[in-house]
Structure prediction request, 710 residues.
Amino acid sequence: MNDQASSPGFLPVLRKRRESAWNRIDSERVLQVLVHNLEGMVFRCAIDEHWTMHFVSDGSRELTGYCPDELEYNKVVSYEAITHPEDRLPVRQRIVEAMNGVARYRVQYRIVHRDGSEKWVLERGAIVLDEEGRRVLEGFVEDITDQVLSQRQLSDAEQRYRSIFEDSVVGMFQTSIDGRYIAANRALAQLYGYAGAAELIAGLSDIAGDLYVESGRRDEFETLMREHGRVSDFESEVYRRDGSRIWISEHAHVVRSPGGEPLYYEGTVEDITAQYHYRQQLEYQATHDPLTGLPNRNLLQDRLQQVVRLASRRGTKGSLAFVDVDNFKLVNDSLGHGAGDKLLVEVARRLKSCLRDSDTVARYGGDEFVLILGDYDGLAETLHILHRIQDAIAEPITLDGQEVRVNCSIGVSIFPDDGVDLDVLLRHADAAMHHAKKLGKGQFQFYTETLNVEARERLALDSALRRAIEEEALSVVYQPKVNARGRACGFEALVRWESAEFGSVSPVRFIPLAEENGLIGQLTWFVLRQACHQAAAWRAAGHPDLRIAVNISPSLFREKDLAALVGAVLEEAGLPAANLELEITEGMLMGDVQRSLAVLGELKAMGVDIAVDDFGTGYSSLAYLKRFPIDILKVDRSFVLECDSGNGGLAITRAIVSLAHSLNLRVVAEGVEQQTQLAVLNALGCEEFQGYYFARPMPAGQVAAYLAGR
Ligand SMILES: Nc1nc2c(ncn2[C@@H]2O[C@H](COP(=O)(O)O[C@H]3[C@@H](O)[C@H](n4cnc5c(=O)[nH]c(N)nc54)O[C@@H]3COP(=O)(O)O)[C@@H](O)[C@H]2O)c(=O)[nH]1
Prediction:
């Protein structure tokens, strides 16, 4: 027992110490008032099994629900009974400790109020000797329930926050304003490739220099923080600990002191690498052509804007070139779409190889490419590039084992002279390209105002043709085919257009236009119906064997119900199928071989004859040719023209005729203009002839007279 424990209790001590000062006042009364008015309970108790109270102040009422009389000497209840059962032993142990030690103690525990509620109390006391020299406890018990509960709430909240922080799958951080980590959670450490938060904090000591791939990224982060106090979706590429890179998105804000001083930044980090790459992929798909990997129209617009802006800043010029692959359709139709695709990929590669990295090659659609040549010094440089492109494209290309040569036609517009926006420059380059095509294959042409007028005319021609087809203002003429004995054995139906606006327009001009703008189907049905009705009329007039030949366009050949549609026209006209020949080109046959076989099979089953027109100008596969149910080969005019001239024309014509005969096909020589040609073709064994030597195409009304004349 120490000194304090052996000193007398508080009542006599208080009395003694203050005796002199209190001489003049009723010190006993003052003490009573003070003790009984304290919020809490002053007590003296025995150190026994009940903590038998010798004295409790009035505060016991509020604290325990019992008044002093009821508590003192355990009249109604003992303090041991009031003490929460779970806390009785710890309290006693604490007091025993104090008895063996400093004699003073503090102990926090629960009591059960008279009304049954629990209260947290703090007891501060000392072991003292009473007036008889027995050891007793004197002390003060106060209600600290509110304090304990709020502390508990605080620590619960802290615990909750800690587990959110620690267990979150989202990376979280606090960083100093000068770019060092103050705190980081496990998810962030994992994200950046560290074993734990401590390792991250120690290892990544310079965020600006060590984390971001793009230098200056932290400066941007700080600028945003300074200006807006926060960043949202701040996307950056960052290094992980092992040097690999990931993409992250940060959301963060500034934490300030009550005075508004920035203290630190805190925020979250998400790994968006997969998302980022997916977005990149979508962006790439939206801006690039899947076949060639070149920029598409969307990106072209963007690139042109940049280049035009740069040229205008520097006061330089640039050019936009529209490149169209000549004969692409022929390759596509004759060797199939797979070969056509390979051709486009190779053309794209060659175009790129002719330009600098800073230039743009874009696929505009189909076989059309657009080049943006920025920053070239004048015309000479541009001309040099254009020649280089044409030479590169003209090099032979091997497609599925077959060597093919193509050229390209190029139209060029110059910026800013011919315009500065994509639409205008494209329109002008397109007009120039069409002009180049007209000049022959493999040409280039610069845009001029005259071409603009031509382009406008083409547009006007397009509308006029549309109207003419809708109003059935076209007509059909008939060119005879003659057999070896000089007798007319049939006619080819050829369309004519006499336009009020444009005069007589050649089919060479409007048939490709109708192909381009999708009017060819309607046009062909018109010709087919006219021709079938006409042939039926000839039959009725005593020419039952005259056959009528109608040209079928590629798009119509791809039509699903071609045979059924032809059957319907024959029925409507009352013409036997044997009187009808359909002329198709070799390119159309080779496009989709299976489909061609099916369509031709249906037509043949109906009894319609099939002729392959312009034979020798495409890329026919002879292996396939024998599989198609065809009846006639028409030797192209270009060979017929030369068959009597001693050039290669004779050899080719002879080869075609003998090929046709070996496949049991009839041969029609088209474009016969001279008697000498006829003689050669006759000698070669051609069965039929067509050409100006016999007759030019004529209106239906002249056919009767022609037949009578022969
Ligand atoms: N899909 C369709 N195409 C058609 C139709 N009508 C015509 N065409 C095609 O347009 C091209 C030009 O045709 P056109 O101006 O009618 O010329 C034909 C003949 O007039 C011409 N020909 C005939 N004989 C001679 C000749 O001795 N010399 C010479 N210089 N030209 C001659 O040839 C054209 C017929 O050719 P082809 O069809 O290959 O037998 C032409 O490609 C037509 O096919 C149509 O209704 N639909």
About this structure: The longest strand covers residues 118-129. The chain is about 45% helix and 25% strand.
